[in-house]
Amino acid sequence: MSTEFLDALRAAIGAEHVLTEGDLSGYEQDWRKRWHGKALAVARPADTGQVAAVVRLCARHGVALVPQGGNTGLVGGGVPDPSGRSLLLSLRRMNRVRAFDTANLTVTVDAGCVLQALQEAVAAQGLLFPLSLGAEGSATIGGNLATNAGGTQVLRYGNARELCLGLEVVTAQGEVWDGLSGLRKDNTGYDLRDLFIGSEGTLGVITGATLKLFPRPAAVTTALAACASMEQAVELLKAARAKLGAGLTGFEVMGRFALDLVKRHFPELPQPLPSAAWTVLLEQSDEESESHAQVRFEALLAAALEDGLIEDAAVAQSQAQSNAMWHLRESITLAQAQEGLNIKHDVALPVSSIPAYCAQADAALHAAFPGARIVNFGHLGDGNLHYNVQVPEGGDGAAFLRDHEAEVNRIVFDAVQSFGGSFSAEHGIGALKREELEQRKSPVALGLMRAIKQALDPQGLLNPGRVL
Ligand code: FAD
Ligand code: MLT
Ligand code: ZN
To answer: Confidence band (pLDDT; 50, 70, 90) for 1?
Structure first.
């Protein structure tokens, strides 16, 4: 069967775009190197028509398929299982910017467009596509939409879902749904677009998207502030919102140990403030100029110092300094990976509950696992923390994960649940959080999700074993 299938696949998209030999680890292993799968083959279609042909072949031969973009997902959703029976469908060759409509402030792109390449193409038009995340040099628009990615600008511009107006999707039957549209209002029945966004490749293959653009601010600049407690960081957020309004485009928090790890693994990166319990990175977008933004930052931070909300602050004096501050923030994930195996979390809470959540979860974890090191950082402005757990210093990461991951997760997610939070804010469910979904989502919600999956993909061929 598989020979017949592979021959048909080669005929449909060209033999050179069906990979079965050589080093395929870039497709078969995830970014964290936590999941190691084996694909029947890697198919690299060139356009929507070829994707549809591939999906029809899969449906005819009963072959499961795993859509993949940049393979930067953090929940193991974009790599094949080890069976060697599923087709890895890579969208990376589909990387065209199809059309700008600058009067409508929209752009239509192929799903395999790399996020950073799109940001640059949009900037060349004097406009802004605000989605921004550490993996933007590899992550694709299709992957961003399939995971409903968040990132560092959600506070002002929303997550990937809010930035998408229209989609083109290949269904599980290999039909093309052309839902590309730049309309900001369209109440014509069920919202199919929103069904596919965040579905992690389990309901359809996203092949194109129409995205919202924004005027480019005159200046974007950053500041760092040191806070002695999470309560103070939350108060600073309130003050920044009140004083900067829509000008506040980023509000990230970095715990002391997170920045200690960056210092240990990237000692060359400047850390302008002395070590503090919490370092906040604020980003401001200004319609006038960089110096205008700096003056507004200085006024905000001087008042915060006087009110006892912060202990120290540094306002970037140049674009290079702003970039360096962001670089520090974006280096935490890599520093953590270099430190060794760890247990990652991506939790959402009402911002008002975050100080109490941190106190509760920290105490419970330290009681259960003395010496466990908590790498807490994230998008405080969105109520989204990456509350990660690193093994005790010098400990065996693999053994810790094997023996304690389930209990660490239970402690963290029970605390999240007790504050009305979510165990997945922006990374999705993938393979990593399926059991959590099963246990923590309501039976009614799960029933509705299964009914949708059954209706759209009755053969269960699209990314099986992921999400549900
Ligand atoms: P992949 O990893 O290839 O796939 C992810 C999922 O989407 C898989 O389930 C896959 O099957 C599915 N998929 C991919 N393409 C398609 C398609 N065309 N149609 C249907 N399904 C598809 N995420 C955040 O939200 N915020 C962050 O700040 C953030 N920072 C990150 C920083 C680093 C260093 C890294 C490594 C990751 C980060 N992420 C972040 C994770 C994030 O989910 C991804 O970076 C990105 O959104 C995934 O895009 P991708 O193209 O790599 O998708
Ligand atoms: C981030 O905010 O840096 C990302 O979501 C990556 C991570 O959680 O490590
Ligand atoms: Zn994040």
So the answer is: low
